[in-house]
Amino acid sequence: MKIIHNKFIPFGDFGLMNILGLVFSKLPSELISPRSKRHEGTHTYQQYELLATGAILALILCNIYASWWYLLALPIVPFAIYALAFFAELVRPPYHNAKEFFEGKRLCDKVKAIPAWFAKVWVDAYRDNCFEREAYMNDDNPEYLATRHLFAWLWYIIPRDERK
User: Fold this and answer.
1) DSSP code of 145?
2) How many CB atoms lie within 10 A of CB 62?
3) Which residues are registered as beta bridge partners of 2?
4) Do 11 and 78 lie in a common domain?
5) Which H/E stretch holds residue 24?
6) What does the pLDDT look like over 62-86, one tens digit per residue?
7) 155 phi and psi angles, rounded to 5 deg
């Protein structure tokens, strides 16, 4: 994992952004906490696993259909799967505390509350997807990256309250 300091990436309010082991940071590397490094290290492992899975699938498709064009999609496979996990959480009910935003309000106030409600749904979907859940739940464990199993993020697809 290599940390690159710049002021443009990551976008918005994010402090760190991981792209296949390259961690972009708005902070100098000495100011990044060990917890954040473990979080991004978990994402690095996840992205490498998805990249390897995509490579195997691309090679199988290349041999079946005799075209090497499938290998061009390989770098976007980890991000496409992450986006699918995010959007699955975005549309999955319950729709994140809609009552507290809309109940007992007049229609014009309900309309004004829609952007705040959608922002909350967006943040909840980000934090609840299986990749982020694995990283956040193991931030405090300094041994996690050494003891992590392959495809450990699959365990976190199951919602928190249904897991035993």
Assistant:
1) H
2) 14
3) 22
4) no
5) strand 22-25
6) 888 877 777 787 888 888 898 998 8
7) -65, -30
* pTM (predicted TM-score): 0.80
Sequence-ordered alpha helix ranges (H) in 4-148: 34-65, 77-91, 98-102, 107-128, 130-137, 144-147
Is residue 70 domain-shared with residue 130, that is, in the same domain?
Answer: yes
* Token pair for 157: 């697809």
Cβ-contact 5, 29 below 8 angstroms: yes
Q: CA-CA distances (angstroms) from residue 74 to 8, 22, 33, 44, 152? A: 26, 17, 31, 16, 21
Query: 120 and 39: one domain?
Result: yes
Domain with 100 in it: 33-162
| Residues 122-135: tens digit of each pLDDT | 888 888 888 999 99
The angle at the Cα of 5, spanning 30 to 82, to the nearest 5 degrees, equals: 105
For 105, residues 6+ apart whose C-beta sits below 8 A from its C-beta are 113
* Average confidence (pLDDT) over 107-130: 78
CA dihedral 134, 139, 141, 146 (to 10 degrees): 60
Count of structural domains within the chain:
2
For residues 91 and 93, give the distance between their C-alpha atoms in angstroms, rounded to a whole number: 6
